[in-house]
Amino acid sequence: VRLYSGLMESRAPLFRQLFESESSTYTYLLADADSREAVLIDPVLETVDRDLQLISELGLTLKVACKHLFYYSYTGLLKMQIHSLPAGGAFLAAETVVSSVTAVNKCLTVRETPGHTDGCVTYVSEDERMAFTGDALLIRGCGRTDFQQGSPHRLYESVHKKIFTLPGHCFVYPAHDYKGQTVSTVDEEKKFNPRLTKTLPEFVNIMNNLNLPKPKKIGTVCVY
Amino acid sequence: VRLYSGLMESRAPLFRQLFESESSTYTYLLADADSREAVLIDPVLETVDRDLQLISELGLTLKVACKHLFYYSYTGLLKMQIHSLPAGGAFLAAETVVSSVTAVNKCLTVRETPGHTDGCVTYVSEDERMAFTGDALLIRGCGRTDFQQGSPHRLYESVHKKIFTLPGHCFVYPAHDYKGQTVSTVDEEKKFNPRLTKTLPEFVNIMNNLNLPKPKKIGTVCVY
Ligand SMILES: [Fe+2]
Ligand SMILES: [Fe+2]
Q1: Min CA distance, A85 vs chain B (Å)?
Q2: pLDDT band (50, 70, 90) for residue B9
């Protein structure tokens, strides 16, 4: 299985970062090199055909697709939204949240990181070398906190207690980027994030004065 | 120096992929974890400030910036165009091609891969785990061959003799991508590239019938 061995080491999980330019969203494909079971983080409708084709070409079985947030009053065990993809094969379909969570748990743990929304989570790889931070922590930025149960206080606490406590070399993979950046590290964001290096009162003040326009897709599943 | 240790292993070179959305161009930053010397592959004018800031934040010294191609009748040792960046610090300036090539050679070798243009090169990392293929090989595609000394025959030969001979797990990092894909592997392209899996006559026929519009920036330094 060397063909699909992924990042640097032959037994390392397969990893791919994919981009959707309309919403500036990153989708992440992670798979176990041996079992060929895959997890898709943050698929986007516009690019799901591309993702499914790649999964098929790489000989993977998609076990679960998950989002970094959800906007429904959904009370699953790990607050995870299972995205119902237009299935090319036999995946997802009627599988329950429980079996999906099991599949995710093999390689990812979930940390609740509310603040952008109530239900935002960060997925962390088993070895703590990768964190998929959703809208909680972006590269040199963070998600907005001015709608949908957003709270700058909670976001600040989430990032400092759940993400900045990861090893410094842990890679930070965000849900979005608007400047062509693909990855950062925990240490880099602790040093250079222009918002989250501030004190809590300063951070709250910044976030409450961004005066951002309402997002285009508010009310639908994905709010950027 | 663990902070900047880069991909997976603490002594591994630091590596960053960066994107410029106007021209769909990837810029790559590579640096030695110990010496902190960096190489920037394919910087783009529009995003060079972002790149220089990152280089500064990571505590790196930019030794050389190079392009995967050039359009001048330039006959340097390794056919490399030194991009004259608006220097924030003391880098590049009057350094000669020779000293730049030395810096590159520490971590990269250069393979001539003409076909898109006469002067296209592919940079290959020392351990043959990464190839920066420019416009020769794109993910599931390749550069056009219908202007600027382009030749489908030469491109086919370049890819098959200089890139497809690399180890199958070698990552393929292209100069451009238009579908949000960030990386591929040699094996994947050998199996799934819709053009380069064809025979030479079929490939030539495909490339001679693409009927692409003239690129916007022809005549300037970078032609996409
Ligand atoms: Fe989002
Ligand atoms: Fe190009």
Answers
A1: 19
A2: very low
